[in-house]
Structure formats: C-alpha cells, structure tokens
Design goal:
This is Zinc-dependent peptidase. It holds the Pfam family Peptidase_M90. Keywords: Membrane, Transmembrane, Transmembrane helix. The strands form two sheets. The protein has a four-stranded mixed β-sheet. Strands 3-4 form a two-stranded antiparallel ribbon. Strand 5 and strand 6 form a beta hairpin. The longest helix has about 45 residues. About 60% of the residues lie in helices and about 10% in strands. The protein folds into three domains: about 45 residues; about 120 residues, Cyclin A, domain 1, CATH 1.10.472; about 70 residues, no CATH class. It has twelve helices and six strands. The chain is globular. By secondary structure, it is an alpha/beta fold.
Length: about 280
C-alpha cells in the first residue's frame, strides 16, 4: 500500500511538473502561431507587404549532389546572402520532399530535374511567407514536347489545377535557362500561371498581396490608354502576352525575372506593381 501511494505521488508530480506545463506550452505556441498568421493577414491588407517572410523551426537540407546543382545552375541563388541561401535551400528541399515527381515516356527523373523545377518555384515565391503552392502537388516531366489528347495539339508545358499538377517538356524547360536574358523561360512562365491560379483560390496573406498588386496593375492599364499602346509598340513583351490576363502576367513575370533593369527603365510603374506582387527586395531588383 505504501509503495502504491508513493508511486501515485511520483506520477502526480510528473504530471504537474512536466506534462501539464508542456501541454500548456504547446497550446500557447499554437495560439501565438495562429495570432501571428491573423496579424500577418491584416498587416498585408493594410500595408500591402508582409511583416515576416522567413520563420522556420528547422531548416531542411538538400543532399550534397542536389546542393552542388543548386549552386552551379542558379544565378539567383548566388546573389543571395549566406543566410538567405540557407533559407532558399530549405525551401527547395521542402518542395522536393512534399511534391511527387513523375517521368513520362520512359524519362527517369534526376536530381537535376528536381532541383531546377523546385528552384524555379522557390525563386518566384521567395518573397512570400507561404511559399508552397497548394494547387501543385505533382510535377510531370516529358522528354520533349508532348501530345495532348484533350485539345489535340503538342504542348511544351501546362498547369492543371484540377489535377494539382504542373507539366513540362524537359528539353524546353532546360532551353529556357540556356539564355538568361531573352525573356523566354518555360519554367517561369508555367509557375507564373500556377502562382496566379493559386492566388485566385486562396485567401492567405501571400495570395492577398498578389491579388491586390494584380488588381492595381490591371486598373492602371485600363485607365492609361497610352501605356497600353506603348506596351504593344515597344515589342518588349512578346505578342503572346496579350492573349488573356493569365498569359499577360506570365509573360511579364518572365521579363521581370530575366531583364529587370530593362523592364524598370521602359515601364517603371508596371515594374513597381510586379515587384510588389512578388515582394522582391533582392539585389538586381
């Protein structure tokens, strides 16, 4: 009986001294996390920019091979400070970990493919606190342009929100990075669509920031006929941009990433809206 009483006493002390404080601490952390998200949302609503962008409990890492690919292939990564390179690597590693990669037509998905695709998404969402796009859960890669039985034509890439997938011809994806200043980049273009579509179906702070910037951009163009005429006359943006507003943003994003100095010089107001939409505060932008 004495042993049982002593055991109950020890159990009670453990519960009161350790278990209860840990549970309360976890609850408080969760409450603070939720309050921070709410505060971020309303801050973005008012100031059109986030309070914070990078908050991590633990930084994920790429394998040595994947990290060497990132350092070698991504000029954007090289421009970042050491701290932000660690953040960028974490986001790339998280994308790879949480996304399913599928090769078609006997294509074997390699580390290079994973890193370059994940790096493109990370580059475009690097100014956001919520950087993983909910509408992209799968990346499908073909060796070359592939035939679509839906619209009976060959595609180089597409974004399919119903399937939560983004699709690339690897030949054309790689070609987009061979010349870094021709404003033709399949990866940026398709992830631009994904970014746009993701914002239209979500109400988080990052999506709100995108939608506000895009609405301001479109309103600016609607009220400035001369600017619209100058856009077309300049031929700085390829003609495909004027297909619809989704293509317009995707093409603008290609130009913004690849030739920011020229973009800013020719169309400073459009550049400012684009910069706000993606929250870019980096060297060269």
């Amino acid at each position: 009986m004495l042993l049982q009483t002593e055991q109950k006493k020890i159990e009670s002390e453990l519960i009161y001294n350790y278990v209860i404080p840990i549970v309360i601490g976890l609850i408080m952390l969760f409450i603070l996390y939720r309050l921070a998200k709410v505060f971020q949302f309303y801050y973005v609503s008012y100031f059109k920019k986030p309070v914070y962008t990078h908050t991590y409990f633990k930084l994920n890492k790429l394998t040595p091979v994947q990290h060497s690919i990132l350092k070698k292939e991504y000029s954007f990564f090289k421009k970042l400070s050491d701290k932000h390179q660690r953040y960028f690597e974490h986001r790339v590693a998280t994308f790879i970990k949480k996304t399913k990669f599928i090769g078609r037509d006997d294509l074997v998905v390699t580390d290079e493919m994973k890193v370059l695709v994940a790096g493109t998404s990370t580059m475009l969402t690097y100014g956001y606190s919520k950087y993983l796009l909910e509408i992209i859960k799968t990346v499908i890669i073909y060796p070359k342009a592939y035939y679509s039985h839906i619209n009976k034509t060959y595609h180089k890439g597409e974004t399919n929100p119903q399937m939560k997938a983004i699709v690339f011809s690897w030949e054309d994806f790689k070609h987009g990075y061979k010349i870094g200043d021709d404003n033709l980049n399949l990866g940026i273009h398709e992830f631009g669509h994904a970014l746009h579509l993701n914002a239209t179906v979500n109400n988080d702070a990052s999506s709100l920031m995108f939608k506000h910037g895009f609405n301001r951009l479109m309103t600016y163009l609607q009220h400035n006929k001369t600017i619209r005429e100058n856009l077309i006359a300049s031929k700085y943006f390829r003609a495909y941009a004027y297909t619809n507003h989704y293509e317009f943003f995707a093409v603008l994003l290609e130009n913004f990433i690849e030739t920011p100095t020229e973009f800013k010089a020719q169309f400073p107001e459009l550049y400012r809206y684009m910069k706000q939409m993606v929250n870019y505060k980096f060297t060269g932008y």
